[in-house]
Amino acid sequence: MNQATATPAPALKLRTWCYAYPPRHYEISGCSCGNHDTTWSEFERHIWCQKCEKDFIPEHAGVFDGPIAIQTAAMLGLCFDRFNLQTQKLERFDLDQLAYVNEQGKLIEDLTAPAPAAEPT
Fold first, then answer.
1. Is residue 9 included in any domain, yes or no?
2. pLDDT digits (tens, 9 = 90+) for 98-120
3. Is the CB of residue 51 less than 8 Å from the CB of residue 35?
4. Are the C-beta atoms of 23 and 76 separated by less than 8 Å?
5. Model confidence over 22-62: pLDDT tens digits?
6. Does 117 fall in a domain?
7. Nearest in space to 17 (alpha carbons), one of 57, 37, 45
8. Which domain holds residue 53?
9. Can you tell me the distance from the alpha carbon of 99 to that of 44, in angstroms, rounded to the nearest whole number?
């Protein structure tokens, strides 16, 4: 008998940080149930709906769907500070350096640095 085998779902990668503001601040779409008061999921690229008690991938990523004019976004009140879930500390986004810095202003992550080359497969 030929039985179809189920393809295992890919493992979800745990998030190491989340933005300091909720998803709706960045105009990320809400849950299909109509709830727009969502929060960051513990999994990367997912949002959590408290009403449905489920993680989901939003239909659109709001301001993250396209190029972001950082200075303009800041003038409009968008904040890209993030909360590090491992250290339990806020990492401030420094507009002058285009980088994340810690409480002392020390560089954590430079967003202008080129991405590392991909590993050959």
1. no
2. 899 988 888 888 777 666 655 55
3. yes
4. no
5. 999 999 999 999 999 999 999 999 999 999 999 999 999 99
6. no
7. 45
8. 17-110
9. 20
